[in-house]
Design a protein that fits this description.
By secondary structure, the protein is mainly alpha-helical. The protein has one domain. Helices cover 57% and strands 6% of the residues. It contains four helices and four strands, in the order ββββαααα. The strands form two sheets. The chain has a two-stranded antiparallel sheet. The chain has a two-stranded antiparallel ribbon with strand order 3-4. Helix 1 runs antiparallel to helix 2. The longest helix is centred in the middle third of the chain and has 32 residues. The protein is flat and about 50 Å long.
Length: 162
């Protein structure tokens, strides 16, 4: 897609609907949803004027989808290498891991570093859940304590005033 300037100076993308090119983020938005210039940057080729709750829900869904792709793909490769499952498990796991890279980039949060830091908390939570359900892993007190610390860290990153 090639960007081009419209008559009013906004940038639109050839071949995509022009919904909004930039939206102002409410001043009470969680800090992670605010770019340094206080506007929602143009992600995925266009910006949507979603209510804050909708954007938060969408971000959480992207974190969960990213986690399932990364953990599921990694688990399939692990099973091939560690438990001698057929080679095509690793092949499909690799494809799912590539998909993860694209899913994670569709997150509407404003900053790459924060997106991946916050995602790290979701990854740990989802990893424990995956291991418990598919591998029968039993979490112990240290696992729960560490998970609590991580999730508190995620909340601090999201809510810290910037």
């Amino acid at each position: 897609m090639l960007p081009f300037a419209s008559n009013d100076g906004d940038v639109a993308y050839e071949g995509t609907p022009r919904l909004l090119t930039q939206t102002t983020v409410p001043t009470n938005a969680p800090s992670a949803f605010v770019a340094s210039n206080q506007t929602d940057s143009n992600w995925a080729g266009f910006a949507l004027d979603w209510p804050l709750a909708g954007r938060v829900l969408f971000a959480i869904l992207i974190f969960v989808a990213s986690g399932f792709c990364e953990i599921g793909g990694g688990w399939l490769v692990w099973q091939t290498v560690r438990t001698q499952k057929p080679w095509y498990w690793a092949f499909f796991g690799s494809l799912i891991l590539v998909t993860y890279g694209f899913v994670a980039t569709s997150n509407p949060l404003a900053n790459f570093g924060r997106v991946y830091a916050i995602y790290g908390g979701f990854f740990i939570l989802l990893s424990y859940g995956w291991a418990a359900v598919l591998d029968g892993f039993q979490l112990d007190t240290g696992d729960y304590a560490g998970l609590a610390v991580v999730l508190v860290g995620v909340l601090i990153i999201l809510a810290w005033p910037r």
